[in-house]
């Protein structure tokens, strides 16, 4: 399975997603590691087995074992952090903002790859998961590391398209099962 297999699974009405997958797979604003890791972390955040399998098959080999583990770690740690910090941000009770999280997040300090790459992957996952507090924190770190608005936007575009592909494939599976049942 690969990007091509994902594109082939998309219906005609999702032609724009097919085109976006192709162009983002060769996004020139990111390094190969940044691009591949963003695809992997975003696929894991999509929670769709078919999309994750295809993305890992396509982009996993483009990453060192350490970078692949770091992209997976970004998806894992942000799955936890995005829920927690979204709660803190959305809760009207202000005392949660002053309480320590008391959640282990050691991988953020030592991700096994360049800090900026890990931050980029964490930002992409945070965009998929909709945590504004985490998006702001990771975007700030990326700017400090010297990444441009265009590079940051490229990562979020990848996350958006991977998520949309997952949603479309899942939607088509539901529609297909309903049609078969009728």
TrEMBL record:
Keywords: Antioxidant, Disulfide bond, Oxidoreductase, Peroxidase, Redox-active center. One of its GO terms (biological process) is response to oxidative stress. The keyword Flavoprotein does not apply. InterPro entries: AhpD (IPR004674), AhpD-like (IPR029032), AhpD_core (IPR004675), CMD-like (IPR003779). The keyword Chloroplast does not apply. SUPFAM superfamilies: AhpD-like. Residues 96-171 form the Carboxymuconolactone decarboxylase-like domain. It catalyses: N(6)-[(R)-dihydrolipoyl]-L-lysyl-[lipoyl-carrier protein] + a hydroperoxide = N(6)-[(R)-lipoyl]-L-lysyl-[lipoyl-carrier protein] + an alcohol + H2O. Belongs to the AhpD family. This is Alkyl hydroperoxide reductase AhpD.
């Amino acid at each position: 399975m690969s990007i091509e297999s994902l594109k082939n699974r998309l219906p005609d009405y999702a032609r724009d997603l097919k085109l976006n997958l192709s162009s983002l797979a060769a996004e020139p604003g990111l390094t190969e590691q940044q691009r591949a890791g963003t695809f992997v972390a975003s696929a894991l955040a999509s929670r769709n087995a078919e999309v994750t399998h295809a993305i890992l098959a396509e982009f996993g080999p483009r990453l060192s074992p350490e970078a692949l583990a770091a992209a997976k770690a970004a998806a894992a740690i942000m799955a936890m952090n995005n829920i927690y910090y979204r709660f803190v941000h959305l809760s009207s009770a202000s005392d949660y903002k002053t309480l320590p999280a008391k959640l282990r997040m050691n991988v953020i300090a030592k991700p096994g790859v360049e800090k900026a790459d890990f931050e980029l992957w964490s930002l992409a996952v945070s965009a998929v998961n909709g945590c504004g507090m985490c998006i702001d924190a990771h975007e700030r770190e990326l700017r400090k590391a010297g990444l441009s608005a265009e590079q940051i936007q490229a990562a979020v575009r990848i996350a958006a398209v991977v998520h949309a592909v997952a949603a479309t494939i899942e939607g088509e599976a539901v529609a297909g099962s309903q049609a078969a049942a009728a």
